[in-house]
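Worked Example 4.2. Consider the chain below.
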Amino acid sequence: MPATVTAMALQDETLSALCWRVLGQTEGVVEQALAMNRGIAAQGPTLAEGQEVVLPNLTAPRVKQREMIQLWD
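Applying the procedure from the previous section yields the following structure tokens:
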């Protein structure tokens, strides 16, 4: 399995929105994508339409488990 995935940005898409659309998560992924794509942060908040962005390849999306609090246990 390749270590990276290449995705193309949609019109007016942010890096975090691209990570969410392609990988299903943003936590920790946006930082990795910024490191993998040097100079992308200098372009501003939105990516150019059709811009190729290298993303880390995740094996499975992480799902956080929230602790449930029962009021009348």
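The radius of gyration is 16 Å. The helical segments are 15-23, 29-36. Compare this with Example 4.1 before moving on.
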